[in-house]
Design a protein that fits this description.
The chain is α/β, with parallel strands linked by helices and 916 residues long. The chain has 6 domains: 49 residues, 2-Layer Sandwich (Phosphorylase Kinase, domain 1); 226 residues, Rossmann fold (3-Layer(aba) Sandwich), CATH 3.40.50.740; 193 residues, Dimethylsulfoxide Reductase, domain 2 (3-Layer(aba) Sandwich); 117 residues, Beta Barrel (Barwin-like endoglucanases), CATH 2.40.40; 116 residues, no CATH class; 51 residues, BFD-like [2Fe-2S]-binding domain (Arc Repressor Mutant, subunit A, Orthogonal Bundle), CATH 1.10.10.1100. It contains 31 helices and 34 strands. It has a 7-stranded mixed β-sheet with strand order 5-4-16-15-14-6-7, with helices on both faces. Strands 21-25-22-24-23-26 form a 6-stranded mixed beta barrel. α3 packs across α21. The longest helix has 19 residues. The protein starts with 6 loop residues before the first helix and ends in a 7-residue tail after the last helix. The chain binds ligand MGD (2 copies), iron/sulfur cluster and molybdenum atom. The site of molybdenum atom has 3 residues, from loops.
Length: 916
Amino acid sequence: MTRARSASDASLGLRSTCPYCGVGCGITVNANGKQGWSVAGDTQHPANEGRLCVKGSTLAETVVDDHRLLHPMLRPSKTAVRVPTSWDNAMAHVAEGFRRTIETHGPDAVAFYVSGQLLTEDYYVANKLMKGYIGSGNIDTNSRLCMSSAVAGYVRAFGEDVVPVEYADLDEAELVILAGSNLAWCHPVLYQRLVAAKARRPEMRVVNIDPRRTATSDIADLHLPIAPGADVALFNGLLQYLWRTSCHDARFVSAHTSGVEDALEASVAFADIAAVAHRCGLQEVAVRTFFAWVAQCPRTITLFSQGVNQSSQGTDKVNAIINCHLLTGRLAKKGAGPFSITGQPNAMGGREVGGLANQLAAHLRLDDPEQRRLLQHFWGSPCMVQKPGLKAVDLFEAVHSGQVKAIWIMATNPVVSLPNADRVRAALDACELVVVSEVDGGTDTATHADVLLPAAAWGEREGTVTNSERVISRQRAFRSPPGEARPDWWALCELGRRLGYQEAFDYQDPADIFDEHARLSALENATCGPTGKDVEGGRYPRYFHLGGLTGLSRAEYDALEPVRWPIYVRQRPASERPFANGWFSHPDGRARFVAVRPRAPEHAPDAHFPLVLNTGRVRDQWHTMTRTGLSATLAQHRDEPTVDLHPEDALTNGIRPGQLARVTTRWGTLVVRAVTSGDMKRGELFIPIHWNGQTASDARVGALVNPVVDPLSGEPEFKHTPAAIAPFEAAWTGFLFTRDPATLDGVAWWVRIQAPVCLRYELAGMEWPVDLDGFAQAVTALPGTADWIVYADHAAGTYRAICFDADDRVLACLFLSQDEALPARDWLAGQMAHRHRGAARRARLLAGEAPHAVDVGPTVCSCFGVGRNTINQAIKEEGLRTAEAVTAHLKAGGNCGSCLPEIRALIDDLAIPASR
Ligand SMILES: Nc1nc2c(c(=O)[nH]1)N[C@H]1C(S)=C(S)[C@@H](COP(=O)(O)OP(=O)(O)OC[C@H]3O[C@@H](n4cnc5c(=O)[nH]c(N)nc54)[C@H](O)[C@@H]3O)O[C@H]1N2
Ligand SMILES: Nc1nc2c(c(=O)[nH]1)N[C@H]1C(S)=C(S)[C@@H](COP(=O)(O)OP(=O)(O)OC[C@H]3O[C@@H](n4cnc5c(=O)[nH]c(N)nc54)[C@H](O)[C@@H]3O)O[C@H]1N2
Ligand code: SF4
Ligand SMILES: [Mo]
């Protein structure tokens, strides 16, 4: 097992990386602060140079043991109750289940479903066990849902999955195209870097291509609110424009690429800019401006994310983008290139070890028998994978049909995050053996496990991750795992050993695994082609090369500084970036243009489902909220799940902003609060992905998403599902503050929100309770004999009840109303921490607000807890005209800067013209 360091080690300032997004910021951890730990940005780390966003800054709040799975749990049958057991017993059960299934039904009847949140060492072992020892390709990862289209696009174009751009290129670019990326919220530190670059060089241009206006649009000189899915048409139009205006790099195209004629022919229908604009739902002048800017700017970066990848034509979108970079030779040069930004902290590490069902490890090709044999020989494996395994959506379909009978799910929550998620839940219910490795035993997926394995979490595990710019960093442990939690690599090796492969899985620690991974990357690998100088020899040249990191001593591995691959030779970074010498990884050394044509989505809006449902992220929550959901600070920014829509769509569908609404698709339905932010176009809805069965009664948006996938990458169409919306008419709404989780049987709708010293629930019901006191006692599980004060006005449809403990502290506080007349929650939330002695003071609580209450409004700046109303007031009263002035006045925006776009939007909204 890994050595978990003690607090005294950490007090020295242990260096690690943030477990959230693919920016991969370096952090330092110290043993102090409110939670026992404090986290700060690592000034030495190249990804962030000391900066952190609000999620990174609040990490210490999430290092709590409350929700942790502490012991292995087992249920011998589907109807039995899960009980704690020993690791030995749990692993014996897993090994027996896998062995029996493989013997009876063959290796393709078992599967692993893993995650870009594993460390590279965990990932390497999982892939080796499934592909080299079980002999099946049935290992897929949540990265399938994330950047598999980018992987497929890069491989088609370059012959290898290599991201040829670095963060520093943003500092040099003349034009940055942000395609389908909400960088301001999803990669905030990188966004801040872009903001700083633009402040230094105001002539730099930014174009934002996104159907919605987002916080990212704030930095854009031009926002193109593209029709959902129309990106191939837009970039085909751009290719034609660049060709016709002679912006192509003829030398580069003829010396280093092939297929340009086909790509031009496929895009010829988009030579007419007016037609492109029409197809994309954009103004012709905006498209002309965009094209002209690209033509003018040799240093162009196209940074793309899920608006491109998560599409039934995601791979074609990626190649449409890369085609434009190939035509102009804007690639592998300072300040230029197609940049797929990765989402998860180790999405890139997963790509390196071949974690997708259609990859082999170390960028070797699964479709080449010779390369399979080479890897088999390296691993000494008994039964090597022969064909690609099932991709995530198909994999769970195979679980549903009974073709896959045993599955091990690790560090991902597919009952929330896969499309058609209710079917995933049904699949797990029907599956003979479901093993789930988790840190949180209560997730929607964990509750379907036959065997639950407690995993060591971030802060307790040792290993490496690779960020979006190919920089490998060490994650280091600063605390011991609680209970019996153990690292994932260890549990996987335990299965390997129990299946009879002692030697192959006899690693002592992650350093051992990393060494094997690095050695494999150098196997038969001459990366630089005939003219390259770094390495010679090798049958299968790949840019993915960690030769310089082989043979590290344990101490060297522990002390490893962030380092970017390729790294061919010890102590010597590669002399040039991948592709800089014009050599690509296809056998002939040439990059490929790919002929792409737009396709209509499989499911288009119709009379029943007239709207397009788009899904994505909010600033302060991470995925299914198992970590960020524990932070009261992070809950302030967006406390509830919402559906954002155009005001006219709200009107035509009879929905008042702020009201609950039911959104329905052919696959599922949910109920969330409707908002009309002004950012949406007509015909489109946006719902965040984060809420799940623990945090809301009815807000798992995955249940609504169509299970359509890209034919090449298998990535789901998460951003495009036909949908309908209708008001959800509740008889009453209300809220509850409580110290203990509420009992919500019979409550039609609820959301759970982490507040500073308690939980808050927002509630709604279909019938006004006949016995209101009984209802209050039931939801709070506090008896009628407890110390309650109650105010009830049946005529007005108002009920308020507060229960105190012997120390005069509020145990629970329930407010219900038939006409949505409820006070703002902030003041009452603050009162939960205080004592309330005396009838007068207690009665004031029933009023729900301070005698001179000021409603600060929803939080904009989470770092300093500054609300919208406070900011608006300062803008108006102090005449503030810039975000910097707001920061100077209120501190808001002065720490991580994530909220600056929102502050600027408030200034714009209140802007008073200087003169008329
Ligand atoms: N706060 C926060 N940050 C995160 C995460 C998180 O959960 N929370 N998750 C991380 C992960 S794993 C990922 S993958 C990244 C994702 O990062 P992003 O991809 O930036 O985030 P999303 O919100 O999924 O989607 C991006 C945008 O695509 C737009 N879009 C939808 N359809 C289209 C289309 O047809 N064309 C174009 N051009 N755009 C479209 C959406 O409106 C949305 O604004 O974020 C990472 N960072
Ligand atoms: N509708 C819709 N759905 C989407 C998306 C979308 O845009 N729209 N985006 C997709 C994308 S890009 C992504 S990346 C996925 C993310 O979706 P998921 O991967 O399902 O989301 P997470 O909440 O990150 O799940 C990680 C789980 O691992 C657990 N965990 C954390 N650390 C460890 C560890 O060290 N070991 C183990 N064993 N477990 C651990 C956490 O408690 C958590 O339950 O969602 C996808 N789903
Ligand atoms: S940008 Fe924020 S979430 Fe992403 S790695 Fe950095 S601190 Fe973590
Ligand atoms: Mo992702």
